[in-house]
Amino acid sequence: MTGGVPGDLQLSGRWVIPAAELRWRFSRSSGPGGQNVNTTDSRVELGFDLAATAALPPLLQARALRRLEGRLVEGWVVIAASKHRSQWQNRVAAQRRLVALLQEAIKPPPPPRRATKPTRGSKERRLAAKKLRSAIKGQRRSRPQLPEG
User: Fold this and answer.
1) Rg (CA), the chain
2) How does pLDDT run across 57-90, given as a tens digit for each residue?
3) How far apart are CA 47 and CA 21, in angstroms?
4) What is the DSSP letter of 74?
5) pLDDT grade, residue 43 (50/70/90)?
6) Closest Cα partner for 98 from 27, 26, 23?
7) Omega within 30 of 0 (cis) for the link into 108
8) What is the spatial distance between Cα 82 and Cα 87, in angstroms, rounded to a whole number?
9) How many other CB atoms sit within 10 Å of the CB of residue 99?
10) C-beta separation of 82 from 43 below 8 A
11) Would you call 11 exposed, middle or buried from its count of C-beta atoms within 10 A (0-12, 13-18, 19+)?
12) What mean pLDDT is reported for the chain?
């Protein structure tokens, strides 16, 4: 996506989603635009069939399906954009959001965490903080009043 709509979406240097795999729907927006909103179809829905795409290799497709499973509707990723007054700007915004979502979904998982032990100094600081907190709370407790006399 270099010049905006329409065209293929560039996910990375290797992976491109062809424009033929994208589905566009337009409707009236409830967003900004005054009375113009009542007459123009500026709201955009961009759909991409992630489950049936041939644009991604099976490994990346499976990773994206797993990470986006709560967002998918029958295998489709649907992005709605109605922030702008013009349909063109909403189309560009929807494309950008779809690219960002898919790039995040196909990223490799982070390296596994290596277990470490807390240092002696961090243990001492933690215990000192607990003692200080205990002392502060202890000062708040009511003390019995000595009888005057």
Assistant:
1) 28
2) 999 999 999 999 998 889 899 999 988 888 899 9
3) 9
4) T
5) confident
6) 23
7) no
8) 8
9) 17
10) yes
11) buried
12) 85
